[in-house]
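Here's my example:
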Amino acid sequence: MKISISQMFRNLSKWCLNAVAATLLLGTLSVNAQDEPKEAAIDGGGLFSSQCATCHNPHKDGTGPKLSGVRSSWEEATGSGDAIIDWVQNWESAVAKYPYAAGVAQKKATKMNKFPNVSKAEVSAILDWVDAQVEPGPVKADGSGGAGGSEEEGGFPWIWVILGVLFIVIIAAVSGVRRQLKIAAGEETSDDSLSYGEEFKKWSWKNLRFVLIGSVVIFISLIVVALQGLGRIGVVENYQPSQPIDFPHSVHAGDQGIDCKYCHNSVTKSRTAGLPTVNVCMNCHKQVAGNDDEQKAKISKIYAAAGWDGEGYTGKTNPIVWNKVHVLPDHVYFNHSQHVVVGGVDCKQCHGDMTKMESTAKVQPISELNKVEGNIVLTRPTLTMGWCIECHAEKEISTGSIDTKGGGYYEEIHRRLLNNDEELYNKYLEDGKVTVKELGGWECSKCHY
């Protein structure tokens, strides 16, 4: 009798284990099959966050109008499903094409940016994501919302939670069958009368080594996940706020070849690069009024700010309120002149190739910065501390001896090293270059108050 019950238990255990393995395999295949199209699909939510969220909300008016239902309203008013896409990519072209767009353009004095680099498919993906968002209901007394929001794609993998619960249920069922079989065979001992909790505690003490190893693995995994989450705090890559005037860098720095320092003229003598004052714009735009209606409409905003009526200054000026793009924490000290004049760092290392930037500036992601010819290839996200210190470790201030680098700053560094620690100086030159890190670029006080 004991043998048949034992054999029955072993068969049942094998069957349960096979069932669990098959379930896990099917779950893995299911997750992979679901993930494949998501990788190829356009992330409408991500595009909304990087391109639209500064001014728009799916269900609330902000700087710009709410976007929920905007596609259907445009299609009804214009008779074209592409009208809203034309508006997003180039609103001035849409104004010339659709009377409805002209009416929308007159509703607000501040005009939206153009997004020529956002494709038709990407605009559609953004609108699909907006239409899928459920408007939250009124807040209840207990602080909870009325209607739940829609779960975004790529959310929590609930399949693994379900499989985990199923696995626990199977273990409990096997344990219950085992106990009942032993009772039926008359093999029950004092241990068999223990509750599941007491039985688990006894098993844990008996297998203490495995319990400790498993606990350590779980604890370390949780710490790693938490640290990875913390590492994304404050990462603002692709941030591009709207601006009061549409300024195409590709025209000014690219087509016209204007040096960055002409407009940002404090970059060589101040910690800040500075925004061009209106009189700097007027140096050119007194003569350049635009070749077509679109250009004239843009340049007229500069005239309004400068108080220029086409023949002379009226004295009625309006300040241009630009929105800051590259924002550093208050405790971080960054000096543009130190990097540009002393370090000889090109603007494109941090800001990207502005000769190809068809709109106002944005925080370029590290993947885009690494594509720029001549840039030091880095790995950390833009505008993070890791990004800065990685550059300080890679950027060389001089090839060969420091005395080959002109300028009083490096002459003083060269003198100090030779007089105080010539051995350290020679060590620096072993690899044929001297980096910012080797000259103290990793000292905390260099960048922090």
